[in-house]
Design a protein that fits this description.
mainly beta; single chain; 4-stranded antiparallel β-sheet
Length: 125
Amino acid sequence: QVQLVESGGGSVQAGGSLRLSCTASGVTSSISLYCMGWFRQAPGKEREGVARIYPGGTRTYYADSVKGRFTISRDNAKTTLYLEMNSLKPEDTAMYYCATATTRCGGSPEWYNYWGQGTQVTVSS
């Protein structure tokens, strides 16, 4: 079974930057990670898709709220997923999760099969 572990979260002032990493284990030749993405959830709010990267590692999608500020990437072996976060805003404060989908790529959390434990990002004004 695929296991994901996030790291890189922390506290930063508005306008600052953070790089989140997600390491994957348990990936074998019999498992295809069709899609990899980042989600976030703030207290009292639903989990929302932040960014995702499609098979091939070139096509990406970003939520309007982070477009132009965040960059998603992965290594060729799909063992590590990254989220470069620039020009952070207080509204970016949330628990960030990495996730993978084996059959579908989209913005719904229900489509993702594996999840990490999350890493907290706090942005102060």
